[in-house]
Design brief:
Mean pLDDT: 80
Strand content: 15-25%
CATH topology of the largest domain: Rossmann fold
Oligomer: single chain
Number of domains: 6
Low-confidence stretches: 1-21, 23-27
Radius of gyration: 45 Å
Number of helices: 29
Length: 809
């Protein structure tokens, strides 16, 4: 090896190699170097990305303030120093906590002042040491230490296991040199093989490994030489495997290039043959397809399938019928948004703002949607949920999907499933058929230009089941299952497509007609009909401005008041949604538009003008009774059009104790009449009723509006109150309404539709409402403005109703 002459080192010339800094000492000199006695307190120099090992000669560039101060100290005192590495190389002024505790003592062999006023020190490592504690921090670090390599046990050289490790390391180094011919002459590894002392050999190899300084620090801290040899061998083997893999990749790339050249030559020949047979294919169209394909982000399988189909197109004669079919197919493949996604805006405040702007009310529905979007934000992985919005027509199910798309910043796609009978509409036809097309799922994704749109499947409850043309419901099972739709297969496309990032939103009017397996794949969100108050707000905020604009009356001065809207709702529309209301408002605006065009001035509409425009009212809302009556109680009912008050009346006549019912009642309501009657008979004495009445008189129960079907258990408590009033000849208060299911034991059970029922009672002028004790939480969820002025009576027993509802004699 070359001997480094420190008096003649020219650091301005970049001609030094690692071999220049490997000592040429003998084995005995190397042993002596590691066995020298050292002081117990030494100056400490901290290095950024370098670890010094015992015996290694190394140049160090000095630039930091503390290191410069240390070098000036050494120039005067010629002392040994401790060299340690810092944990994070990005820190300019490391503290003791930022410094590794194990380092290497070193002799400073030479100090050179550079032209840029920095220093370069040539140092040689000696013993390893551990810092016990820092004794000085300014102007440079000084620490109390303990040495770790006080002596080298001669038995280590005679250990067979250790000798085998050293031999294996040298063989691995030789393999690295053989497989790295570009660096064979300059490689530092070449010089390592000439070192005799195994301990010094390990230190030099460790210093030259292509690993991070943190990994080198771990090697420096190993106390057992056999363990150190094992770790060094592991790193060398990893480097050797890296070289082999690099060679393999290089060889593969070379073979691929050779194959591309061969394919180019064959394609050139094929092109010449095609020109002889009748002209080349439409080169411009093929070129456009290739340009689009180059920009696609598809996976290897899709790319391979495309190139195979493109090669098939090239071999076709452009005059053949199959050429246009194949061309259309490839057009579809390159137009689809493979792995192209719009960036989601998961700002929950923005989502709420958009939903509130587009829809008034529906608070529970909005909360459910915000919960789903919050989960999507947290998951990151974005396996979108399948929502199913269920509710009566006109409540905003479809428009909610559009609002969600706007809030998230996604593309919006809507597909109507009403009356869908052919499975191929969803899955497509095989392209071998004449007129074959992809399914509507793939078609809509092509139009959207994104693989993660908000996709509304409208009227999913109206999809046909099994027909001679397949089973569309079964096809939807795969489309709407997040575990399966990652590999959706379209018969025309014939390449699996990932639908899992799509935010599917299904809408339905009736859950009963949806296939159970399909229903199981969706999160059901129910939308109830709007209340009168909500309809008024929706009309004033959305419907009136929209219809004024659509009918050209925005600047006409025509104005609607809440009272006018209320009049229209009560007398001319009876629906759960607002579609009929919107059409009626448009009709009113058109009447005034005709007057406006003729020069008549229009302004704020008056309530009394509505019958002149819309005609005789179509509906009459029930109002609270003005006079208390025997055998007539006020109940509360829920319909798809909202809440209503319901009068239940009863009368008795001489007979044999029979009970009859009229009013188009369903089975459940008939059972409620029977329950109430039997309970009264069983507790006649307790209720103060003469038991002979049940044998001498017939009782008839009637609920008005016989053309309207009525069913459900919630009228039970009202029926009980009506019958008790009749049999005790006690009038029922007119300002009390009630709802609740009853049992044969005299209990009152909770019912649904509480909000709608309460609002109906308030509109009718009712002041007191009787409910089951278990319905108390439902009332607490209703906005305070809707329950203001009402008194609620919560009961557990049927008899409690009588104390509240019946007038005392």
């Amino acid at each position: 090896m070359k001997k480094v002459d420190l008096d003649f080192i020219d650091l301005q010339n970049n001609d030094l190699t690692q071999e220049d800094f490997i000592s040429s000492t003998t084995q005995q000199e190397e042993l002596d170097l590691l066995e020298n006695e050292v002081e117990q307190e030494v100056p400490i120099m901290v290095l950024r990305n370098t670890v010094l090992f015992p015996g290694i000669i190394m140049p160090i560039t000095i630039g930091r303030r503390k290191s410069v101060e240390l070098i000036r100290h050494i120039e005067q005192h010629k002392t040994i120093i401790g060299i340690v590495a810092q944990k994070n190389a990005d820190i300019d002024e490391p503290t003791p906590a930022d410094i590794f505790s194990v380092g290497t003592l070193a002799d400073v062999l030479k100090i050179l002042r550079m032209p840029d006023d920095t220093f370069t020190a040539i140092v040689q490592g000696k013993n390893r040491f551990r810092i016990i504690q820092f004794t000085q921090e300014e102007p440079f670090y000084k620490a109390a230490i303990e040495t770790l390599d006080t002596q080298i046990n001669q038995q280590i050289f005679e250990n067979i296991q250790f000798q085998i490790l050293i031999s294996t390391i040298k063989e691995t180094i030789q393999k690295i040199i053989n497989h790295d011919p570009e660096n064979r002459e300059q490689s530092a590894y070449s010089a390592l093989l000439k070192i005799e002392n195994p301990v010094f050999f390990l230190n030099v190899v460790a210093s030259n490994l292509k690993i991070s300084h943190n990994e080198k620090q771990l090697l420096l801290e190993i106390n057992d030489y056999e363990t150190l040899a094992t770790e060094i061998l592991r790193h060398l083997e990893r480097e050797y495997q890296f070289i082999l893999i690099k060679e393999k990749i290089h060889e593969k790339v070379k073979n691929d290039i050779d194959k591309q050249q061969r394919d180019y030559y064959l394609n050139a020949q094929l092109k010449a043959i095609q020109e002889e047979l009748g002209g080349a294919p439409h080169e411009q169209e093929i070129k456009e397809i290739e340009q689009k394909a180059a920009q696609k982000k598809w996976d290897e399988r899709t790319k391979e399938a495309f190139e195979k189909e493109l090669a098939k197109l090239r071999r076709m004669n452009p005059m053949s019928a199959d050429f246009s079919i194949q061309l259309n197919y490839l057009d579809l493949v390159v137009d689809l948004p493979w792995n192209e996604y719009t960036e989601d805006n998961f700002d929950i405040n923005n989502v709420r703002k958009v939903l509130d702007e587009d829809h008034y009310g529906l608070e529970k529905v909005k909360e459910r949607i915000i919960e789903f979007i919050s989960v999507l934000k947290l998951k990151k992985e974005l396996k979108s949920p399948i929502l199913c919005l269920v509710g009566p027509p006109g409540v905003g199910k479809t428009s909610l999907g559009k609002s969600i798309a706007r809030a998230l910043g996604r593309k919006y796609v809507r597909m109507s499933l009403g009356g869908l009978r052919d499975e191929a509409e969803l899955r497509g036809h095989r392209k071998t058929y004449i007129g074959a097309m992809p399914g509507r799922i793939i078609q809509n994704l092509r139009k959207a230009g994104s693989s993660n749109p908000v996709f509304v499947l409208d009227e999913i409850d109206k999809v046909a089941g099994l027909t001679v043309q397949g089973d569309p419901e079964a096809a939807l099972l795969e489309i709407l299952d997040p575990e399966q739709n990652t590999h959706f297969y379209d018969n025309y496309l014939e390449i699996e497509y990932d639908l899992s990032k799509i935010f599917f939103i299904a809408t339905a009017n009736n859950l009963a007609t949806i296939h159970p397996a399909l229903r199981d794949r969706m999160e059901i969100i129910e939308l109830s009909g709007y209340t009168l108050e909500e309809k008024v707000q929706i009309a004033m905020r959305h419907l009136v401005p929209k219809q004024l604009e659509e009918n050209g009356m925005t600047d006409s001065g025509l104005r609607f008041t809440p009272a006018v809207i209320t009049k229209i709702i009560n007398d001319y529309t009876r629906e759960s949604g607002v579609r009929t209301l919107e059409r009626t408002i448009a009709k009113v605006i058109r009447k005034y538009a005709a007057r406006y065009v003729q020069g008549e001035k229009v302004g704020t509409i008056k309530v009394k003008e509505i019958p002149d425009i819309l005609g005789v009212p179509l509906f009459q809302k029930e109002k609270a009774l003005k006079k208390p009556m025997v055998g007539l109680a006020t109940g509360l009912a829920w319909t798809i059009y909202g809440g209503e008050i319901l009068f239940i009346e009863a009368t008795m006549s001489k007979g044999k104790g029979q009970i009859s019912m009229t009013g188009n009642l369903g089975d459940v309501m008939k059972e409620s009449v029977t329950l109430a009657y039997e309970y009264i008979k069983a507790n006649a004495k307790k209720l103060g009723i003469d038991e002979d009445i049940f044998e001498k008189y017939n009782i008839h129960v009637h609920i008005p509006e016989g053309a309207t079907p009525k069913d459900g258990p919630s009228a039970g408590i009202t029926i009980f109150t009506t019958l008790t009033s009749l049999l005790t000849n006690t009038p029922v208060r007119t300002d009390v309404a009630m709802t609740g299911e009853i049992t044969l034991r005299g209990k009152v059970l909770p019912v649904g539709g509480i909000k709608e029922k309460i609002l109906a009672a308030k509109r009718a002028g009712i002041k007191n409402i009787i409910l089951s004790q278990e319905n108390r939480p439902n009332v607490s969820e209703i906005e305070k403005q809707y329950v203001e002025g009402l008194t609620f009576h919560y009961i557990d027993e049927m008899i409690e109703t009588l104390e509240i509802a019946l007038l005392k004699k």
